[in-house]
Amino acid sequence: MSHELLKTYPVVIELPVAWGEMDALRHVNNIVYFRYFESARMAYFTRLRIWNYMNETGIGPILASTGCKFKLPLVYPDTVSVGTRISEIEADRFVMKYVVVSHQHAKVAAEGEGLVVSYDYRALRKAPLPDEIKTRIEALEKSVESGTPDGG
Amino acid sequence: MSHELLKTYPVVIELPVAWGEMDALRHVNNIVYFRYFESARMAYFTRLRIWNYMNETGIGPILASTGCKFKLPLVYPDTVSVGTRISEIEADRFVMKYVVVSHQHAKVAAEGEGLVVSYDYRALRKAPLPDEIKTRIEALEKSVESGTPDGG
Amino acid sequence: MSHELLKTYPVVIELPVAWGEMDALRHVNNIVYFRYFESARMAYFTRLRIWNYMNETGIGPILASTGCKFKLPLVYPDTVSVGTRISEIEADRFVMKYVVVSHQHAKVAAEGEGLVVSYDYRALRKAPLPDEIKTRIEALEKSVESGTPDGG
Amino acid sequence: MSHELLKTYPVVIELPVAWGEMDALRHVNNIVYFRYFESARMAYFTRLRIWNYMNETGIGPILASTGCKFKLPLVYPDTVSVGTRISEIEADRFVMKYVVVSHQHAKVAAEGEGLVVSYDYRALRKAPLPDEIKTRIEALEKSVESGTPDGG
After folding, report:
1. What is the residue-wise DSSP string for A77-140?
2. pTM for this one?
3. What is C4-136's CATH number, 3.30.70.260, 1.10.10.10, 1.10.730.10, 3.10.129.10?
């Protein structure tokens, strides 16, 4: 789904809504949206080749906090597109934004964000965000801007 | 994925493997295969228009038992195709067969089955499988056989 | 577990950590915390007899947003106590606070909150929070304060 | 819960039914029963100190197949007791039996079984079940029999 609602997100994944993810209120259960966010985050990290970097250096991402605003209940059958972008980069952390778009409704079903901290898994403490990762994030984010008419 | 391994299954769905569905052994957790089966079952039921029938008559399917044989561990990233067919029809029940095929390996990751009983949700007791549903099942199953070279 | 960390929470539930809820990083997966919050929320709603009220009037709670700060990774085997309280009541909504305490560590593993909106499920729109529910919330919250030395 | 229905099971765990584990049919979703079985299996393995053995030798259990018969739908709120026993031991495998008892109904909600194969995680192939583990299983199973009148 290539949609106006997703055009500022450099990484977009598509996921089918599973019948069994609806709860007794007959809507997709609230925890499933965080699974959507996680899958989108992992797709973004793959684009950054962050796991290779982590295997070599021991420095990788850790989710410090996350949140979701529910806009529209999701119901089976449907497919969602989940867009992700990184909106703020600081010395040892960045903020990811998520949007969940329902194909049935062509509307935003939920918006979320996550704070990801750079962590040294060998030293067991926070670590500065490596320059290499920061550069890759900036390049990936720029790919979206340059795709818009007034990009550049 | 149109694969030899799936050709006897009239209903096939594709599902992405989610990173968060792996457990501490770094394989897709065993309960996730039953979610795959459920999603495949629901896709098959949709093809039978079983929910409309249930809304009109109160007679619908209930899962009486299910099982799975694990053949190959699944790991993120991967996509699975899940095929479903109905192998035995009796007066008040039928047996569904499931197969999970890993795209990464082009191999069967798991095989399963489910016993589905026809249930009168208004009278709260087992009910004969309606002829109409039985006819639809037979037509759907035949669609696969006739698709094979020596079909019919 | 009757713990200092939980004493300001009028509703506390205990939940075992399931092995299968750990992910490939060998910590309890982030979405599980939102299941903990949900279970705590339902326990609180039960104490308010909110479901009876909803059946009679059609007015009930809807989760508008939720978030979690992760403080300490959880690992199987462990048991968590999840405390809930309502911190702010407005005309048509209230804010719930959650705390997850690990028994292994006797420390806070996570803190969260949820914004719950009063919804008329018959008219399909927001509704004022019924006085009766507001009174029950205040009584339940007061039960904790009066348990403290300077309570009341 | 110390119940007649559980008395032949040497390992019994108690788990609360979570509201969010009910699906759109307002019963606990079928995949949750396999989570119950898994939690029971892990509790049994802990009693066998199987993980220590695995860390030392590389030989551990792997789930080859599992199945469940659903007897009674579970509904929130409820608590289940899940009993586990090992019913058959062969050279390189054993069969576990599970029973799920609803406290609300004091009845069996489901019965299941799992085939567990002994696996050499270093050599990546099946391995004979170590005598030490076999002896521990027999001792644990005997603990139940000796609790019955004609035990011994």
Report:
1. S-EEEEEEEEEEEETTEEEEEEEEEETTTTEEEEEEEEEEEEEETTTTEE-PPPHHHHHHHHHH
2. 0.94
3. 3.10.129.10
